[in-house]
């Protein structure tokens, strides 16, 4: 948490320490999901740029890795959306940094609509907890207070939601 406070106070040395500590981990995280070195490099750099730009709104209640990996996920989604749109308007598949399976998933299955439909088909409580967490960015404690449940119950619902989405995505990526 001390790194967060220091970064919020414009401490470039603390930022450099976080960068040195997490750069390879973020890169590996994105590479594992996209199978593209280009996307992994791009997303990693954009994630740290976003961290610096949004340093004033970092939460001191969440660890730096949770916030950083959350940013990386969002940046990855943004980059993939932009690439999907670019492919759609180009009308052909030139050489791309993506694997064929990822391009196929984005182009032929409209991945975002599938995810949204899966979310809407979740049991009501699971869907509400998941949307408050992932779409509105509320903490587990905040969600627990809203529904008068324990933070562990919130974790359970989010875990089940993520598992459901991952299983479905895995099945369509094959």
Topology:
Layout (H helix, E strand, L loop, with lengths): L1 H7 L3 H23 L2 H17 L10 H27 L9 H10 L1 H10 L3 H12 L4 H8 L3 H23 L1
Helix pairs in contact: 1-2, 2-3, 2-4, 3-4, 5-6, 6-9, 7-9, 8-9
Explain the overall architecture.
The protein is mainly alpha-helical. The longest helix is centred in the middle third of the chain and has 27 residues. The chain has two domains: 97 residues, Rna Polymerase Sigma Factor, Chain: A (Orthogonal Bundle); 65 residues, Arc Repressor Mutant, subunit A (Orthogonal Bundle). It contains nine helices and no strands. Helix 2 packs across helix 4 and helix 7 crosses helix 9. About 7% of the residues have low confidence.
Annotation keywords:
mainly alpha, Arc Repressor Mutant, subunit A, 174 residues, 2 domains, Rna Polymerase Sigma Factor, Chain: A
Provide a brief overview of the structure:
With 174 residues, the chain is mainly alpha-helical. The chain contains 9 helices and no strands.
């Amino acid at each position: 948490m001390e790194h967060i406070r220091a970064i919020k106070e414009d401490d470039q040395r603390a930022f450099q320490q976080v960068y040195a500590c997490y750069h390879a981990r973020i890169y590996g995280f994105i590479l594992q999901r996209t199978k593209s070195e280009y996307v992994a490099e791009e997303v990693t750099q954009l994630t740290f740029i976003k961290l610096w730009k949004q340093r004033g709104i970092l939460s001191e209640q969440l660890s730096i890795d949770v916030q950083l990996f959350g940013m990386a996920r969002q940046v990855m989604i943004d980059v993939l959306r932009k690439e999907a749109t670019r492919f759609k308007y180009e009308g052909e598949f030139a050489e791309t940094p993506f694997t064929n399976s990822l391009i196929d998933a984005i182009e032929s299955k409209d991945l975002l609509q599938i995810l949204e439909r899966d979310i809407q088909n979740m049991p009501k409580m699971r869907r509400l907890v998941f949307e408050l967490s992932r779409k509105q960015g509320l903490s587990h404690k905040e969600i627990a207070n809203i529904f008068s449940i324990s933070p562990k119950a919130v974790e359970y619902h989010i875990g089940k939601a993520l598992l459901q989405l991952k299983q479905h995505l895995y099945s369509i990526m094959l």
